[in-house]
Each structure stands twice: as structure tokens, then as C-alpha cells.
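Regression report. Comparing outputs from two consecutive submissions.

Submission 1:
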Amino acid sequence: MSEMDEFVREWLMNPTVGRLVVIGIGIALIWALVKFLKVRFTTRMEQADAKYRARKLLDLGGFVLVIVLLTVVYSERLGGLTVALGVAGAGIAFALQEVIASVAGWLAIMFAGFYRTGDRVQLGGVKGDVIDIGVLRTTIMEIGQWVDGDLYNGRIVLVANSFVFKEPVFNYSSDFPFLWDEIKVPVMFGSDYEEARELFGTVLDEVAGGLSDSSQAKWKGMVTKFMVEDARTQPWVTLVFNDNWVEYTLRYVVGYKNRRGTKDALFTRILKEVEATEGRIRFASATFQVVGVPPMDISIRK
């Protein structure tokens, strides 16, 4: 037998090589199994949210299987590595504390229900819609900033999951997917105030009153789940006045993604209806009108 044959035989009989081969084959089989399950089950799902969650769950299951495989292969050596792993683990935990906090944040997000994909949140100073939740970071499609209203500005922001432990998490769409919003309409003194209140109430009911029943049902669920008092979800018109004008406040409930469109519809209808009153209701503004000049006695001396 040549030296090369002896070397190959010893290399094949090496326990370390055998373990590496087993690990390589096992990881390949696990990857193939996860890939097969993704194709088999997610293609039958119609909802995008269900597909996303199924893929994430299968990926997590694949990682768990890989860890189990490594544990089984090296089970006889784990006892001798306990002390070394303990010392190394302390250093690794200190060096990777932000990463560990992000992983813990991911577990909190997935199991404690901070938010889920599709929710509109404000996290780490960033406001937008959650489009992906990774093990370390949450991906947000940002809204606002230089764009007025709750509209996308085109930026995709990655926020570390550890922020759920450091800052408040504002969720616009979790248990109560509605927002209270208001618009203010200034009316000149001398207008028909009762007609104005009735007109604004009618417009408010027709444009924004359709969500009253559904939002009230959702709020009832909030009352039973949390220590919060019952609140009015029906449209509401209130009046105040100051030195310049009479101000009507139109308060209503709107879907968290429809604020801008609802305001546009309200202002358009209000403009049209007020113009139809032929001056009985007039908008007020901050412009100044000179109504007369007092008499002046002017004498000129040479």
C-alpha cells in the first residue's frame, strides 16, 4: 500500500472528518426539506401575510434543526467544552450585547405582539409601515418627513429590534385600527350659526360617518381588554369663538391609512355647500378690512 493510500485511509477514518461529512449532508437535507415545504404549502396560500409568516416559521424551524444536528454530532464532547464555553460566552455576550438585545427584541415582537408585518408604527423615531421583521432588524417603509400627510416618501429604513426595549412603540393599527382626526372651519361673525352647524354635521356624517359602527365595535373590544373608558366614535361638531371668528371643530374617526383622502373629501364638500348658502355662511380669514376713516381736522401753518 502506497503512502498516498495510507494517507487517504487515515483521513477517511478521522472522526473529525466523519463529523464534518455528517454535518454537511445533514444541512443539505434540512435545506432541501425547508425549500420543499415552502413550495408545497405557501403556494396554496392566498393571503400575503400568511405566506410571509409561513416562510419565516419554516426558516426558524430549519435553524432549530441545524442546532439539533450539531448538538447530536458533538454530544460526547459537550461536557469537556462547558468551562471553555462559559468563559467565552461571557466575552461574547459583552461584545455582542446589541445583537443579543436585538434577538431578544425579535422574540418579544413575535410572541408579545408589539407589532406585525403590515402594521403602521413609529419606532426609533421612524414612522411607517412594517414590511419585514428580521431576527436583528425591522424593515419599515417610511412615511412623512418632507412629504405632507401619511404618504410614502420612498425610503426604506432598517431599525434594530432592540429599540422595542429602549423607546415607546407607537402602533396605529393593532387593536384599534382607527384614528380620531379633526378639521377646523372659521366662520365670520354674523353668519347663520345654526345653519352652519347643521351643514357641517350633514357633510361630516355623509363623508366620514360610515366607520362609526365598526370603530365602535372595535372600541368595545378595547374597553374589555384594557383599563380605558368608553369613547365617542360618532362624528361630532363643536363650536368656539374668539376675537376674530367663530370656529367649528369637526371631529371624526378615520382609518389610519385614509386621513389625507378623508380631509380632502371633507374640505371639498364644505367649500361647495358653503358657497351654495349665498352668503348666509361666510368663511373668516385673517385679512384686515378697512370699513371707514374717522374725520380728521388738519391745519397748515406757514
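Submission 2:
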Amino acid sequence: MTEPSNESAIRDQEKQVAARAAAQLVDEGDIVGLGSGSTAEYAVRFLAERVREGLKIIGIPTSQQTKHLAEQLGIPLTTLEEHPQIDIDIDGADEIDPQLNLIKGGGGAFLREKIVASVSRRFVVIAESSKQVKILGKFPLPVEVIPFAQSLIKQHIEGLGAKVSLRSYAYGNPYVTDEGHHILDCTFSKIPDPPALAEKLCGIPGVVEHGLFIGMAEMALIGKDGRVIQLRR
């Protein structure tokens, strides 16, 4: 049996392989969406290496954490107000199905991530091999909500068949997103029809956004066995 530390090292290597491959897709002069989370962080670091070597790009970060990292690494940044069209967006995912539908949001930044992905000419997803699934749903689906309505929304989503919990910090206070909202983590086990569920969630008053990314990714780069598997929609 593989030791947990070895499994962690393998996952980390897969993340790096996928992230490095994605960083090579960025061209001179690109406006680049900078994703959030551990895999996307590797992509930011590899892009920073290319910037130090002379690549001219401008990044748009999807979270405060990514913004701070990019600034520390010397990647020039801009905003959606200044550049409402993005050339390529590189981000991770918590689950990827065969149609490249995604669950995102384990790190809590999926609202900004979805906005950036929606205005990108190319949305490239990077992940370790364990993120590939036949059907979405084992990973809890995050739903960003207005705190005022969270108890009502929780009841509504439970009526759709999910186990729902409020995301909290270790010390007990509710997790607060960059936009000041709360997150409900919703475990469905299986989501056989992601578009139908996405439509139902969007129809609930007080839901700001959900972590289903339907038909948005152009390509997924999956690290596995030291190489990159490329999937296209």
C-alpha cells in the first residue's frame, strides 16, 4: 500500500506537470486569468519564471491570495475594468467529468473564477489525475449565498437531495468570501444532470453563484505518471 506521504508527493508532481504545460500556452502580450488554489498557484509560479525570462503579459487574479502571490513574484496585474476581454484563463478544478463540466470552489474563490472564465477566449483547466470523474458530485458543491438568506437556501437545496453544511473556519466562525458572502457546501453524491441542477440553483433567491462550471472549459490538462493528458470538449 502506498504511503500517504508518497501519495501526496505524486499528487503534487501531477499538479506541477499540468501547471507547467499550461504556462507554456501563454503567448507574448496575453491578458491572463490567474486562477486560485494549489494547482493554479503552480501555474502562477511558472508564469512568473517566464516573466523573469522576458515574457510580457498582464494578469488578472481571481482572489486576493492569488493577487498577493502574483505581486510578490513580479507579474504585472490589471483589472476587468481595464481589460474586459481575457486571452487565456488558467485555473484548477475539484472535479472534471468527461464533458469537461467542473465542480470548482474548494478554495472559496469560484465567483470571481467564473467571472474571469466567462470573459476568456480560452479557459484551460489544470488538475491532478484524481480530479477526473465519470460523474460529478462526490466533491461537495459550493454555493455562495447572501448570509441573510442562508437558512432558507439551505432548506431549499436539501429539498433537492443534498446534505448541506455552512462552510466555517476552524474556530467556528462562518467562512467569508472576498465579496463578503457565505458558502454552503452541498453533497449530492451524484449529479447526473449538471445543467439542470445549475438552473435550479440559479433560480433560488439569495444564491449569488454556484461551483458548477458548465461548458466553459476549452481544454483540461491532467498530470498523470509524469506526463500530461490533454482533454478537449
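Expected: both submissions complete independently.
Actual: both completed, but the second showed a warning that disappeared on reload.
Relevant detail on submission 2: The radius of gyration is 18 Å.
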